[in-house]
Amino acid sequence: MLKKILLCIIALLIVIQHPAFGQTSSSLEQLDALSDKALEMTKLKRYEDSEAMLTHFSDVFLQLTAEESIFDMDELRIITVAHNEALGAVQDEEITDSEKVNAVTKFRLVIDAVKSTHQPLWTNMESSMMDTFSQTKEAALQQNADKVEEELSTLFAQYDMIYPSLKVDLSSETIQQLDTRIHFLNQTRTDLMTDQQAQRELDALRYDLESIFENMEEDEADPSLWWVIITTGSIIISTLSYVGWKKYTAGKNEIKTRKKQDDEY
Hints:
It contains nine helices and no strands. The protein is mainly alpha-helical. Helix 2 packs antiparallel against helix 3, helix 5 (126-141) runs antiparallel to helix 6 (145-169) and helix 7 (172-187) packs antiparallel against helix 8 (196-216).
């Protein structure tokens, strides 16, 4: 009897939780797959196919957002901007292949950031960005102005690549702090070899990004999963308590009945 009750409870929770969650998950998976395909086509220089994927993404995206409340307003804006930039890039015959790949990669990372609950794809940029920080610092110490300029340009390009994804995953306060550091470094880039404040800002930016990468790589359980676990556990505990109480009262009644029968005899 107890097993049947528990199975009914679990089945009920699945029925309640699964349809909406499954539909949202499926929609995000579909959008994620389209963005991935668009990037693949761009890397292969099949720009017409990439354009077709991005156009199809737009159609699906508009349909899903009209039917479901999957994204908040900030996410809608960030995705739309990244998508428009990617589509414009693959349609532009005057920009380089690398610029096209970068634009579509930026878009791909945004969609993954929206879909992922932990360890989004943009965190894979950590190693290359930390290397760029080290190369920039070394060039500054060697008083190599050309190398400093080259490495800073690389760093800013890397930051630009993940910037929309950061806006999805980080607080506005954190984004503002990063923007302030980036802006200061950009303004003082020609003085990095001699400006101690600029060097401190470079170190601070590296520390901030290292902390962000580390925090994003922590394996955090989906809040909806915790809700199911807590709810299921509470119901099971309540059920066990109820069943135990029923057995206890039934046992007491049985003892009373037997005692009454013994007294009658």
